Amino acid sequence: GSMEENPSVTVDVFSSYDYGDVRDYRAGDAMKRIHWKLSSKNDVLQVRKNVAQNENYTCIVCDRIIDGTSYRLSRDVRSEIDDRTVEEAMLAVSEICRRDGNGCLSVQTDDGGALMLGFSGGSDEGEMRYLLSGIEKGERTDIISLIPESATAVYYILSYLSPNQVKGVFDAHKKCVSQVFNVCIRDVGAFIPENKREDYRVSLDSFKTILAENGISFFTVTDGGEMNEE
């Protein structure tokens, strides 16, 4: 009665694989790949391995701000900026799902931890939003460490507020040796107090220059929502 002797238990709507095509679940695996029947028998989440060789797997890194002390922004303003950063990440997730792609969303949490949510072409956006509602608390881990090696592309999304964020981008870039790496910068100049706005512009331009000099692809999204290819 072991699994190997009776592979027919794995036959269901995904009939194009056999028992050798499943493995244990790993963080970031798309929910639609979970083999529920085998998982319940083994008491361990099992995932289908039959991923086409040319299938893209995109990791979206949503780097939320932990503090806005550089520009003395109120908590409400920081919260509004955070919401827009998450919204930007959700737009990217929706677009990838629409193209029936697979991937994962890594989000920085309020307590300095990180959450990772897998998604696929079959993902329901409502489900993603529900999971994101738990954004206050995450695993005590660095968001960069949640970029899976299986990713073929990485989009690093941040609302630029401080030079410290440059380190996050470079740490991610260092980890992404063979992946396509793009940075999406939300220009939040509209939130910066008038007397600090010029400083902000200089700092943001400096950030863009550093990215360009290091050959890192990036684009800017302003609060109007339009994209400016760099």
Q: What's the structural blueprint in terms of helices and strands?
A:
Blueprint lengths: L21 E3 L11 H7 L3 E3 L8 E7 L11 H24 L3 E7 L5 E6 L5 H8 L20 E7 L4 H12 L4 E7 L7 H20 L3 E5 L5 E3 L1
Parallel strand pairs: 3-4, 3-6, 6-7, 7-8
Antiparallel strand pairs: 1-2, 4-5, 8-9
Characterize the main sheet: 7 strands, mixed
Total strand segments: 9
| Strand order, sheet with most strands | 5-4-3-6-7-8-9
Spans of 5+ residues with little confidence (pLDDT < 50)? 1-19
Helix content: 25-40%
Mean pLDDT: 79
The secondary structure category is alpha/beta
> What proportion strand?
15-25%
| H-E order | EHEEHEEHEHEHEE
What does this structure look like?
It is a single chain. The chain is elongated. The longest helix has 24 residues, at 75-98. The protein has helices at 36-42, 75-98, 125-132, 164-175, 194-213, and strands at 22-24, 46-48, 57-63, 102-108, 114-119, 153-159, 180-186, 217-221, 227-229. It has a seven-stranded mixed sheet with strand order 5-4-3-6-7-8-9, with helices on both faces. Strands 1-2 form a two-stranded antiparallel sheet. By secondary structure, the chain is α/β, with parallel strands linked by helices.
Keywords:
230 residues, alpha/beta, 5 helices, 21% strand, disordered N terminus, two-stranded antiparallel sheet, seven-stranded mixed sheet, 9 strands
Describe this structure in a few short sentences:
This protein is α/β, with parallel strands linked by helices and 230 residues long. The protein is built from five helices and nine strands, in the order βαββαββαβαβαββ.
